[in-house]
Design a protein that fits this description.
The chain has 3 helices and 18 strands. The protein has about 350 residues and is mainly beta. It has a domain of about 150 residues: Jelly Rolls (Sandwich), CATH 2.60.120. An 11-stranded mixed sheet has the order 1-2-3-4-6-8-9-16-13-18-10, with helices on one face. InterPro entries: C-JID, Leu-rich_rpt, LRR-SigEffector_domain, LRR_dom_sf. Pfam families: C-JID (PF20160).
């Protein structure tokens, strides 16, 4: 059902909530619409709900919902607390919600969050993702959480976002190891800031990082690499046309061989301009290391990392960070241990 651009639409009939077969509901641009039916127990197949450009303040709990768009909503100030109970929600887009100030805990299955341009957003719940993720099954491997141009975030909100990114990198490392996955896992996070989080144990000023790794750094518990780049946009006063990516070229060298490859840390594909500095955090698996036998495990290794941007005008990487992600033991990281580790963060 597509009612996009019905600018005089003020309400919807209650019987809409009884549509058992409805899979997609588009109400984009219905600028006078302030509510949707709250009794939706029969809507068991609704997957996509587009409410961008409306004045809706509360979303009914639709268990089957996978994609929700609330962009350009000027009425919503606090996103409702029961959002964590949307058990199947994978995509949440809330770009340019100019009055949004608070995000609650998000559902554990969420793979994509974009709150670009929510300039009044101040707080996010800690933990950012519902603690039910410790009790239920594991979430999907890929995830993208974007807080671009959310310049009003409190420091504790940024800390919560960074903590989630660290937990996500750890969880991906564990799952890739336990399920013997060597490729496909990817996670990236972006938020306004100018400091590499302290959990990156190798850091440098500028765009080049050259840590020296001790012998036995590459062992059977190594499952991934976490990378961080702080990008300054102060000199970039022109709108960014198209998109750009934040990338890192890694070169491993020791007395017996070398290995070089590129990986993505994050990307931007919104028309417009990014203001101030932003922190980009990405995770990649060690598939290329596992498939390459010229890097021995018994010798110290020098790593040279060069962070750079593609098609990003005058923007540049001003600080960077790196961390090797290890698992604890094969198949035995208990959920209670995960919860305890997350609490310690």
């Amino acid at each position: 059902l597509n009612m996009e651009g019905c600018t005089e639409l003020e309400s919807l009939p209650k019987r809409l909530g009884k549509q058992k077969a409805l899979q997609e509901l588009v109400l984009s641009g219905c600028s006078k619409l302030e509510s949707v039916p709250t009794v939706v127990k029969d809507m068991k197949h609704l997957r996509i709900l587009l409410l961008d450009g409306t004045r809706i303040r509360k979303i009914p709990k639709i268990k089957s919902l996978k994609c929700l768009c609330l962009s350009r909503n000027i009425a919503m100030v606090n996103l409702q607390d029961n959002l964590k109970d949307f058990y199947n929600l994978k995509c949440l887009v809330m770009k340019n919600c100019e009055n949004l100030r608070y995000l609650p805990s998000l559902p554990k299955c969420l793979e994509y969050l974009n709150v670009y341009g929510c300039e009044r957003l101040e707080s996010v719940e800690n933990p950012l993702v519902s603690d039910r993720l410790f009790l239920d099954g594991l979430e999907k491997l890929r995830s993208t959480f974007l807080f671009t141009n959310c310049h009003n975030l409190f420091q504790d909100a940024k800390d919560s976002i960074s903590t989630y990114a660290k937990w996500k990198c750890h969880r991906l490392a564990v799952e890739c190891y336990e399920q013997d996955k060597v490729s496909g896992a990817f996670s990236n996070t972006c938020y306004p800031g100018y400091i590499v989080p302290s959990w990156f144990d190798h850091q440098a000023v500028g765009s080049v990082l050259e840590p020296r790794l001790e012998p036995h750094w590459y062992n059977t518990m190594l499952s991934g690499i976490a990378l961080c780049a702080v990008v300054s946009f102060h000199e970039n006063q022109d709108p960014i046309i198209g998109s750009f990516s934040v990338k890192c070229t890694l070169q491993f060298e020791n007395e017996d061989g070398s290995l070089r490859f590129d990986c993505d840390i994050g990307c931007f594909n919104e028309p417009g301009m990014i203001e101030a500095d932003h922190v980009f955090i990405g995770y990649v698996t060690c598939s290329r290391l596992k498939d390459h036998h010229s890097i021995p495990i018994h010798h110290p290794t020098t790593v040279k990392m060069k962070f750079h941007l593609t098609d990003a005008c005058k923007s540049k990487v001003v600080d960077c960070g790196f961390r090797l992600m290890y698992t604890q033991s094969r198949g035995c990281l208990l959920r209670e241990e995960v919860a305890a580790n997350f609490t310690k963060l």
